[in-house]
Amino acid sequence: MGNTQGASLEELSACESHQWYRKFMTECPSGLLTFYEFKKFFGLRNLSDSSNAYVQTMFATFDMNDDGFIDFMEYVAALSLVLKGGVQQKLRWYFKLYDVDGSGCIDREELLLIIKSIRAINGVDHEMSAEDFTNMIFDKIDINGDGELSLEEFMEGIQNDEMLLATLTESLDLTHIVHKIHGEVIGQN
Ligand SMILES: [Ca+2]
Ligand SMILES: [Ca+2]
Ligand SMILES: [Ca+2]
Fold first, then answer.
1. Which residues have CB atoms below 5 A from the ion given as ligand 3?
2. What is the DSSP secondary structure assignment for residue 76, as one 8-state letter?
3. Is the pTM of this model over 0.90?
4. Which CATH architecture has domain 13-187?
5. Which residues pair with 33 in a beta bridge?
6. I want to staple 54 with a disulfide (CB 3.0 to 4.6 A). Which of 1, 117, 143, 161 is the partner?
7. Given pLDDT bands bounded at 50, 70 and 90, which one contains residue 11?
């Protein structure tokens, strides 16, 4: 916890914050976004079970105080991370997202689950099976070979491999969804 809080309201201009606030309050007048509203907000409908689990994990990483709702500050922190965060900041966030059980390491099953979910959401065909892809990542970046990826292995390994970095960056489906929403918000002016 904690690192995502570095991305705060300050990183968005006053004008942008105002637009985001309007969008947020229009979609969510109570000021607290539930998981159901979150999915509606991002237009995520008819998800498979694994995609739903992925989005739920994403929701949980945005819900920084774990109260089951995303409030406006958490929403802004999430958006500024997705829209403006640097590579390091994003990788730390991915790590938290992928470490489903919060053990501090990503094991093979967690990675496989995430890759399958991302593929299901994106709906694109891939040459490599999710299993092979997971194994390839572990072969490349599980440096001490203990079958788990530590934060260090993950950060180092991904940053030093252009292909993995590009794949991971593209795979955060939320980015383009948020960009789409962002475009709409700007377009309202
Ligand atoms: Ca919350
Ligand atoms: Ca774990
Ligand atoms: Ca390891």
1. 142, 144, 146, 148
2. H
3. no
4. Orthogonal Bundle (1.10)
5. 70
6. 117
7. low
State how far the Cα of 150 lies from the Cα of 161, in Å rounded to an integer.
Answer: 16
Question: CA-to-CA distance for 178 and 189, rounded, in angstroms?
Answer: 18
Closest ligand to C-alpha of residue 142 is 3
How far, in Å, is the centroid of ligand 1 from the Cα of 176? 23
How far, in Å, from the CA of 111 to the mean position of ligand 3?
Answer: 13
Q: Which ligand minimizes its atom distance to the CA of 139?
A: 3
Q: Separation of 74 CA from ligand 1 center, angstroms?
A: 7
Distances (CA, A) of 168 to 25, 54, 76, 95: 31, 15, 22, 11
Domain boundaries, the chain: 13-187
> Can you read off the two tokens belonging to residue 49?
């079970």
More confident residue, 51 or 189: 51
Cα 35 to ligand 2 centroid, rounded to whole Å: 22
